[in-house]
């Protein structure tokens, strides 16, 4: 038998309020939010590619920083995934037995913290180091992603809030650390076959 932590005592009422609101909302709103929740992470990947593409025109150091953004995001995801295994919080849609827009994940697919929120927040923070404009766009998208995960019913509000916090902090630490080595990395990589990744033709 698998024992899991129940997060309903933290903000279960807020979760049911959100799910009830989703249930009363127009169909087109729910369809749009559900689509964003399910497929929106692809937008964050595209933003990182765009950041790298633009960075090549700025200089090798900025390009190296842009290439490091996905690494920071993967690190953030890893930390978030470890926290999931440690806390082992059951999904709210499983604990509270409510009707949700998205199918409830299987038992053992833990809820706290939200991977989607962590990935989105990590991308936003990492992109700030590459382009403030792209970082701002990603930040708005990250908040929308975090909110969508509660709206479709697969996370408590505290799951997404902590996911945003974990993703943002890990990405910030990773990018700060990388910035110390960016110039050295740029110099070394510019002398290799990877040079085209650092400068526009």
UniProtKB/TrEMBL annotation:
Q: Which SMART domains match?
A: acidPPc
> InterPro entries, alphabetically?
PAP2/HPO (IPR000326), PAP2/HPO_sf (IPR036938)
Q: Where in the cell is it found?
A: Cell membrane
Query: Topologically, how does it sit relative to the membrane?
Result: Multi-pass membrane protein
Say yes or no: keyword Transmembrane helix present: yes
Q: Could you tell me which residue ranges the Phosphatidic acid phosphatase type 2/haloperoxidase domain spans? A: 63-175
Q: Which UniProt keywords apply?
A: Cell membrane, Hydrolase, Membrane, Transmembrane, Transmembrane helix
Q: Which residues cross the membrane?
A: 33-53, 60-79, 110-129, 136-154, 160-178
Q: What is this protein called?
A: Phosphatase PAP2 family protein
Origin organism is Streptomyces hygroscopicus
State the organism's lineage: Bacteria, Bacillati, Actinomycetota, Actinomycetes, Kitasatosporales
């Amino acid at each position: 038998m698998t024992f899991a932590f129940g997060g309903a005592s933290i903000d279960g009422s807020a979760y049911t309020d959100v799910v009830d609101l989703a249930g009363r909302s127009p169909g087109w709103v729910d369809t749009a939010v559900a689509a964003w929740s399910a497929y929106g992470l692809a937008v964050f990947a595209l933003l990182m590619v765009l950041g790298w593409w633009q960075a090549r025109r700025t200089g090798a150091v900025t390009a190296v920083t842009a290439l490091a953004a996905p690494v920071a995001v993967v690190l953030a995801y890893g930390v978030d995934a470890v926290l999931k295994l440690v806390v082992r919080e059951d999904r709210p849609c499983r604990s509270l037995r409510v009707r949700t827009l998205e199918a409830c994940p299987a038992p053992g697919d833990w809820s706290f913290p939200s991977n989607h929120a962590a990935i989105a927040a990590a991308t936003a923070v990492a992109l700030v180091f590459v382009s403030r404009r792209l970082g701002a766009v990603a930040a708005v998208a990250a908040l929308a992603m975090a909110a969508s995960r509660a709206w479709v019913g697969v996370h408590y509000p505290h799951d997404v809030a902590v996911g945003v916090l974990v993703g943002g902090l890990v990405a910030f630490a990773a990018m700060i650390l990388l910035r110390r080595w960016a110039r050295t990395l740029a110099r070394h990589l510019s002398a290799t076959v990877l040079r085209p990744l650092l400068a526009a033709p």
